[in-house]
From TrEMBL:
<keyword id="KW-0276">Fatty acid metabolism</keyword>
<keyword id="KW-0443">Lipid metabolism</keyword>
<feature type="domain" description="Acyl-coenzyme A oxidase N-terminal">
    <location>
        <begin position="15"/>
        <end position="124"/>
    </location>
</feature>
<dbReference type="InterPro" id="IPR002655">
    <property type="entry name" value="Acyl-CoA_oxidase_C"/>
</dbReference>
<comment type="similarity">
    <text>Belongs to the acyl-CoA oxidase family.</text>
</comment>
<dbReference type="Pfam" id="PF14749">
    <property type="entry name" value="Acyl-CoA_ox_N"/>
</dbReference>
<dbReference type="InterPro" id="IPR029320">
    <property type="entry name" value="Acyl-CoA_ox_N"/>
</dbReference>
<protein>
    <recommendedName>
        <fullName>Acyl-coenzyme A oxidase</fullName>
    </recommendedName>
</protein>
<dbReference type="GO" id="GO:0071949">
    <property type="term" value="F:FAD binding"/>
</dbReference>
<keyword id="KW-0274">FAD</keyword>
<dbReference type="GO" id="GO:0033540">
    <property type="term" value="P:fatty acid beta-oxidation using acyl-CoA oxidase"/>
</dbReference>
<dbReference type="Pfam" id="PF01756">
    <property type="entry name" value="ACOX"/>
</dbReference>
<dbReference type="GO" id="GO:0003997">
    <property type="term" value="F:acyl-CoA oxidase activity"/>
</dbReference>
<dbReference type="GO" id="GO:0055088">
    <property type="term" value="P:lipid homeostasis"/>
</dbReference>
<dbReference type="Pfam" id="PF22924">
    <property type="entry name" value="ACOX_C_alpha1"/>
</dbReference>
<feature type="domain" description="Acyl-CoA oxidase C-terminal">
    <location>
        <begin position="463"/>
        <end position="633"/>
    </location>
</feature>
<dbReference type="GO" id="GO:0005504">
    <property type="term" value="F:fatty acid binding"/>
</dbReference>
Length: 642
């Protein structure tokens, strides 16, 4: 049924695949790893997985982690395919490789790296990232766990002073890890020196039981990440040696003398690394959801045309409106994430190799905005894809609910999205000042803030859309700045008067940034894919403006005729995407096993797939007469007595 759709594609698939994965080498590596998952019996999708208890799901996921380690390198930062491809679960090594090891590389001294790095990489020292507390998450500087230096013994005393200070949510803490990178308030001679990381053994090497003075457990079921053992941990005056403090940037000697060096914000380095993974890798889940929804929309037919032929639901304009803007945004986020990864890696290398912090502010700002934008997009995309598939989208066998459940927590973890937008807003205001005081210091991505007005001949062209998106953000940033400065108490103004305007301004930066990256990809990387990518880019830019044009309306820089033109042009571009829709999602190279969906196979009968699962594979049907029928009889007996 789908072969005709594939033949009408108007671009070379392989070139598009290379663009989506950042190059031929990365795409080939993806296909190689995907082949491993496809051919290993343990990683075949089991649609009955969701009938298992959480305990059984956790154990199965641990077994899968061991099997995967035998063949692929889970710590490879170039492409985190295990998270994207592993059916029904995220490997238990994720936090260890994505947060603990990067934190060590940035925060530990050369001596500490030499002592621990081999053990970290071979799992002899398996750790978690214990920062968030029950009472504090985004507000890192006000964490309440303390590490008090004891001069008499040259030890730090780690203590949880109250319930709120309990470490809460770290992945791999509840069941597995033996060590923890614990972030605590450093106190020496009664003086506080801020929050710093301590590398601590928390479980016995032989018995795996929590060590005396430490209480640990799993926090329980949650929305998404069912197989992840997010845990809690509290300390009762637990003593650790002097070298537990990761001391590249702060040192405490045996006499209690504290020495600082470098940028105190370096502690955010490992969190940046994880945020980069959320932008770079987890964005791919939106592509998976779109592949399912678009394939299903080609299989599914509803209602008849004038020739008495049933119509594929993807041929309906309203279905295209649900899916095609999301498809365009997926491509925009992928191309944006490629640039962000370059920026993050450059910053990481400058800090770790040369103690150079010149890119830290820019990287933090762009990554904060991107994490907020991309994670919301992925969850929203998964939900709209689920809705676009009607009733079958609700079933786990569609492969869509799990994407929504697993991706929704990312909106909050590693930086709550509203907070991150406000951090980007702070950087926008700083660059707005620099536009006047020292314009040469403004990074190229933020020079648009100097724009006051612009004459755009064609509001739907790539250049016109870039200009308008930049102007929209610039106007909203200036509006937010005016609101902030209207109150003499800037702290109060930030918290209670201008927060909405600041977050709004920040939320419009990433669409502009993505559009720049999209256009750069078209101009400098694409060859025979230029035409279809230009159509997608125009749909993306138009959609971003139609979704949020407040900054342009504030200055009357967009007319009602312009808005009509934007709407009409987007609708006129949909037929081009309709011809190429299947090829655009299949350029990701995802196999049926990776899609994990019965409603979107590469070939076959979706209805037979669904019926066979319900009638033959659903374990709830293994008993011809379920034991629960006894309760129906009891209900009748109770009713008879009423």
């Amino acid at each position: 049924m789908l072969e005709a759709e594939r033949k009408q594609g108007q671009f070379p698939m392989l070139e598009m695949s290379h663009l989506l994965y950042g190059g031929k080498e990365q795409f080939d590596k993806f296909i190689e790893r995907q082949s491993f998952f496809d051919n290993h019996p343990m990683f075949k999708v089991n649609h009955d997985f969701f009938n298992l208890s959480r305990q059984d799901q956790i154990l199965l996921n641990a077994e899968k982690t061991v099997e995967a380690m035998k063949k692929i390198s889970l710590e490879d930062p170039n492409y985190y395919t295990p998270n994207v491809l592993c059916p029904q679960g995220i490997f238990i090594s994720t936090v260890h490789f994505a947060m603990v090891i990067p934190a060590f590389q940035v925060l530990a001294s050369d001596e500490q790296i030499k002592k621990w790095m081999t053990s970290l990489k071979n799992f002899s020292a398996f750790g978690c990232y214990a920062q968030t507390e029950l009472g504090h998450g985004s507000d890192v500087q006000n964490l309440q766990t303390v590490a008090v230096f004891d001069k008499q013994t040259c030890e730090f005393v780690i203590h949880t002073p109250n319930i709120e200070a309990t470490k809460f949510w770290p992945g791999e803490l509840g069941l597995y890890c033996e060590f923890a990178l614990v972030f605590a308030q450093l106190i020496v001679d009664g003086k506080g020196y801020g929050v710093h990381p301590f590398w601590i053994r928390i479980r016995d090497k032989e018995t795996h039981k929590p060590l005396s003075g430490i209480q640990i457990g799993d926090i329980g079921p949650k929305m998404g990440y069912a197989v992840k053992d997010n845990g809690f941990m509290s300390f009762d005056h637990y003593r650790v040696p002097l070298d537990s403090l990761l001391n590249r940037y702060i040192k405490v000697n045996r006499e209690g003398k504290v020495e600082r060096q470098g940028n105190p914000k370096v502690g955010y380095g490992s969190m940046m690394y994880m945020r980069n993974i959320l932008c770079d890798q987890y964005t791919k889940f939106a592509g998976r959801a779109l592949a399912i929804a678009i394939r299903y929309s080609l299989y599914r037919k509803q209602f008849k045309d004038d020739n008495k032929q049933e119509i594929r639901i993807l041929d309906y304009q309203c279905q295209q409106q649900k899916l095609f803007p999301l498809l365009a945004e997926f491509y925009a986020c992928v191309f944006g994430s490629v640039k962000i990864k370059e920026l993050v890696n450059d910053n990481f290398n400058k800090i770790s190799r040369n103690n150079d912090f010149s890119l830290l502010g820019l990287t933090h700002a762009v990554l904060s905005g991107a994490k907020a934008n991309y994670t919301y997009f992925v969850a929203n995309c998964a939900e709209w894809c689920r809705l676009s598939c009607g009733g079958h989208g609700f079933a786990h066998y569609s492969g869509l609910p799990i994407i929504f459940f697993e991706m929704s927590p990312n909106i909050t973890l590693e930086g709550e999205n509203t907070i991150l937008n406000l951090q980007l807003a702070r950087y926008l205001l700083k660059q707005l000042q620099h536009i006047v005081s020292k314009p040469t210091a403004v990074p190229s991505f933020f020079k648009f803030l100097s724009i006051e007005t612009a004459k755009v001949d064609d509001v739907t062209s790539l250049d016109g859309l870039v200009t308008l998106l930049g102007l929209n953000c610039a106007n909203l940033t200036k509006y937010a700045a005016q609101k902030l400065m209207s109150n003499p108490d800037l702290k109060e103004s930030w918290d209670t008067k201008s927060g909405i305007a600041l977050a709004k301004a920040a939320s419009t930066f990433i669409p502009y940034f993505n559009m720049l990256c999209f256009v750069d990809t078209i101009n400098n990387k694409a060859k025979d894919t230029k035409q279809i990518l230009t159509v997608l880019a125009r749909i993306y830019g138009i959609t971003m403006l139609l979704n949020n044009m407040q900054g342009l309306l504030l200055k009357n820089q967009l007319s009602s005729q312009d808005i009509t033109t934007l709407q009409d042009t987007r609708e006129q571009l949909y037929p081009i995407i309709r011809l190429n829709a299947l090829c655009l999602v299949e350029a990701q190279g995802l196999t049926d096993n990776s899609l994990q969906s019965l409603i979107a196979p590469k070939e076959g009968d979706v209805y037979v797939n669904m019926y066979n699962f319900a009638s033959k594979e659903n374990s709830l049907n293994k008993q011809q007469v379920h034991s629960g029928i006894n309760y129906i009889q009891k209900m009748r007996e109770v009713n008879a007595k009423l």
